[in-house]
Amino acid sequence: MAAKTIGIPSLVRSVARAFVVYHPLHITSNLSYHSRLGYLPLTAPTSSGLCHLTQAIKRDVDVLLKGVGDKNTIEEVKHILEMAGRAASRREILHTNFLTPPVLKESLLAVEKLADVKAVAQGGYPQAERCRISVGVPDVFSSDPDILAALSITGNFGYQPCSHGDFLGAILGTGIAREKVGDIILQGEKGAQIIIVPELVDFLISSLDKVGNVSVSCEKIPLIALDYEPPRTKSFRTVEASLRVDALASAGFKVSRSKLVDLITNGDVRVNWTPVSKNGITLKTGDIVSVSGKGRLKIGEINSTKKGKFAVELIRYL
After folding, report:
1. Per the domain annotation, does 189 fall within a domain?
2. For residue 56, how far is the Cα from the chain centroid?
3. Taking the model in full, what pTM does it have?
């Protein structure tokens, strides 16, 4: 189905006609995500014409972001839409940092409402959660951009296992910003593999020498060498009177309802990677609930019972 496009306000329509050249819209598959990203590519625009069109896009941003509740996510998506505009007007490819799942999701939903600029989102492997987006007009993409690198971090972790947080903390401790690092794939006693922006590979290899109390060495590896497995899950069913997050999450994580409410109050509960502050939020099939220190839960099939309750499939990530 063709993406719905946002029209140019009549105020600038006459200006836009002088500069807009439409390119065929096409989609390319990618390792983890792909989408259509739209904008009006310009050929040799005058400064005044580009200024008017930029104002038009800014005016449309509020429409594109309608329904996005988290303020931080809104700001990040705005930056990506602005990047799409710059990429189109300059006829070049621009790249984001690694994006969190909610920002990635909302960005792709927003830009699908526009037309004629291509977006490729890459995370390094099919199940990647943190991805980078590349944007540009279709004819400047010769192939998927080379914007990811992988490193293997090895050490004697047999007697001193390290967690995801241990590896991330060690990496950030070198001075690298979080948005420059993608997923971290734990390898048990072997250590971990990480996805990172290519320009920081040499720096991290020379700077990272310890994770926790374990001495480590880093080596660049090809993306094809990433050793990942589909996440292990356990499914079970529960019957609840409501689909509220406190009801389903307490059943899924085997904690009391009052304890779950306390976790929500403390900011330890996220729905689709966005923190929630109210326990009355209603969940639906496909939602992901994460609780600090307890893991993640996916909401599966939901059916109504004869007694007016809800039979819900809960999928716990192990």
Report:
1. yes
2. 27
3. 0.68
